[in-house]
Write a structure and sequence with these properties.
With about 400 residues, the chain is α+β, with helices and mostly antiparallel strands. It contains 17 helices and 10 strands. Helix 6 crosses helix 8 and helix 8 packs antiparallel against helix 12.
Length: about 400
Amino acid sequence: MHPSIYTAPTFRADPYATYRTLRTDAPVLLTTSAAGAPVYLVSRAADIMDCLRDPRLKKNMYNTRTPSFFERLFIRPLVGSNMLKADPPDHTRLRRLASDAFAPRVIAAWQPHIERIANRLIDAVVHTGQIDLIRDYALPLPLTVITDMLGIPAADHPRFHRWSTNIINSGVISGSATYLNRDILRLGLYLRGHIRRRRTTPSDDLLSQLMQAHLGTDQLSPRELVSTAVLLLIAGHETTVNLIGNGLATLLQQPAHLTHLAAHPEDIPRAVEELLRLCSPVQLVNRYAAEDLTIAGVAIPRGAHIQLLLGSANHDATIFANPEEYQLDRDEAKHLAFSHGIHYCLGAPLARLEGSVALRVLLERLPSLQLVDPVAPLEWRPSIELRGLTRLPAVFTVPTAVRGG
């Protein structure tokens, strides 16, 4: 078994160099996960696409092995009752029940609200001449959006981020760890109470829509509602934080691209697609083998844990010419930032909209934005699945109207 790539000193700073070596030397590698358990890493885009379409590879590990009593009692009910961890036919049913709430026309209606949030965040710092683009912008924007969509009071936003960060770092959501995380209990208990309140006082928020969604006589069960809400809260802001933060870091390190977008805001949606590819917020997705199979000539035993390295696929030179470069004219349909197949990210329209609005409003309001130290090493969060920055300090010239005020 190969030593874990995740513990290498250089991996967090630049995983793409490691991925490049894997694609050439070991496209399917047996190693250990961040939690120390055996895992097969698949790094080539073509193999990953095949795996994403292979029905023998399951999202829910409990469909490939018998869960322990502890897992059946605690972990499986909460984590295994949403579409992220479900397989057909459960996945098909859960996704259909939630899909109307994430239809593009529904998401597009949130644009004015997202713009107001972005402007409000900039209003809070515009007089200071400095901003931490993660703490002050990339984090609170999608967190506020998804909690507003779910009808969560603003006073609870900070603890929601703390809970979701701890849950992701624990590995419970990914399945790389099966111990009980206290914050997933806290979040689940909070959401149970919120759902009870919504049953007596319905609203037009996303949670109420999910409670009312039905296919004939079928509706989401109370357990599925809580599990789906957990998924939406975590996936609904953590990935977009990283899309905005990673994208801004990339553009600020290459100011000519930022200048181009300021002059041509119509190119911002294409820029978001290229940033999703170049600095993928989601680096990998997990699968579990339901039977013995072979991937790229490597035998995979039943029950094996497999990680499909989406970040590697998005840098595969057989798909993308000069993959380490930012290029606006790429075929945006080829990247796998939102995965592929039946598990293609349901929240992709929301992430794209938030990324485009965040970038456009920032360039409109703070055109002189630049990094405090363009050559300083970036500080990355510890999560292996989600690649994102802990901070991104920047400075700007205080607009004349603000100084005059």
